[in-house]
Write a structure and sequence with these properties.
alpha/beta, Rossmann fold, 2 domains, seven-stranded mixed β-sheet, six-stranded parallel β-sheet, about 15% strand
Length: about 375
């Protein structure tokens, strides 16, 4: 990216919101009356720092805002390494990126967003940096949850999303939508995640598949890596799943980050079938997932990318809270987990066992059964 602000393709045809596809016969509603006069709002910023998955799960909020404010400028602030996920997103005007660095970097972004003159800023993250930037924006309306640390820096403090939805549990998407819904944005249809597939990324993926001899073959996408051991299903299990794909006429294709190459090499060594692997950018991962017949992987940001481009998916969960982090898409999806009394947990390490049994005990046959169930769905 050049500079801190990256313009997103905003051609007129991308501004059309298909309301019939977004909700049924009843139009969506807000969760509370409007807190201000929305007719005077011209610029809105969402702040959603941290990971790939967090960013993807903010896209239903982008959809809800664009549907509600078709003529407003809608921007999002994310970390620089994850920003390419939102390339060409149809519901965005600008992606503002927070580069790696300390106070100087944050102060530079703070000056930029303050000079933009946002009317409304939603803090979808709640961390110290996000809250600092929300306050520094100088927006007339700064929205966050009462439970946030330094919540007093927001002049609109929302109650718990559990109260707003009237539920015992909420998904990450619902938690973010609730913040908008509390201010008067219609959200009750709970929009799904959505990412754009850029023509450049799609062409690059086509060329890679052609070079691998897969341009005319159906393939299954495997993501065998995870951020923590408590989310990492055994590589030998993924090898068995790859073999099951080959038996079903699907070519197995595996992707990992550049620093995770040893996982793919181990996968190839332990499998009796050919597995193709590509090093791809995040937009190219989205393009590859969109072309796949099915995605299988651990609970990760890549799983959320696959869901957001409409890929059918099977996601293997270990320590994570399934209710909060499951795929949020319209395409068929299955979650496979092995329930344990200590699950879910923080996930950074296992406090109960020498190894994270919650993920390691998930059997291969249940994952393969979930794959067959998903493949049985008509497109």
């Amino acid at each position: 990216m050049n500079g801190l602000r990256d313009m997103v393709d905003s051609s007129p045809q991308l501004r059309v919101i298909d309301t019939k596809a977004s909700y049924g016969p009843e139009p969506p509603e807000a969760l509370s009356p409007a807190l201000w006069d929305w007719s005077k709002v011209r610029k809105v910023l969402l702040i959603r720092l941290r990971s790939i998955g967090d960013t993807v799960l903010s896209t239903p909020s982008l959809f809800a805002l664009r549907r509600f404010l078709p003529d407003a400028e809608i921007d999002i602030l994310v970390e620089d390494w994850v920003a390419p996920v939102l390339n060409n997103h149809p519901h965005l005007d600008n992606v503002v990126v927070l580069e790696r660095g300390g106070f100087v970097t944050r102060a530079r972004v703070a000056r930029e967003i303050r000079s933009t003159g946002y009317d409304v800023v939603y803090n979808l993250h709640g961390g110290t940096t996000a809250t600092f930037l929300t306050r520094a924006s100088g927006a007339r309306h700064r929205v966050g949850y009462k439970t946030y640390q330094y919540a007093q820096l927001h002049n609109h403090q929302a109650p718990s999303p559990l109260l707003l939805w009237g539920q015992q549990k909420t998904h990450s998407v619902e938690q973010q939508l609730a913040l908008l819904g509390w201010t008067g944005v219609p959200v009750t249809d709970r929009p799904r995640t959505h990412l754009a597939v850029t023509p450049e990324a799609d062409w690059a993926v086509h060329q890679r598949l052609e070079e691998a001899g897969l341009a005319d073959r159906q393939f299954a996408l495997i993501h065998p890596a995870a951020a923590f051991a408590t989310k990492q299903w055994a590589v030998e299990n993924f090898a068995r799943v790859a073999e099951s794909f080959a038996e079903r006429g699907l070519a197995p294709v595996a992707i990992v980050a550049p620093n995770e190459r040893e996982i793919v090499e181990s996968l190839m060594d332990q499998s009796s079938v050919r597995i193709v692997s590509f090093d791809l950018s995040l937009p190219e991962v989205a393009a590859l997932a969109a072309r796949s017949q099915i995605f299988v992987g651990n609970d990760s940001g890549i799983a959320h990318i696959a869901a957001a481009v409409g890929a059918r998916s099977v996601v293997i969960f270990g320590s994570s809270n399934v209710a909060h982090w499951r795929p949020w898409n319209k395409a068929p999806a299955e979650v496979v987990t092995e329930p344990m009394p200590c699950q879910p947990c923080h996930g950074y390490f296992c406090e109960k066992f020498p190894l994270p049994e919650c993920i390691l005990r998930v059997p291969v046959d249940r994952v393969v059964a979930a794959v067959d169930k998903i493949l049985a769905h008509a497109d």
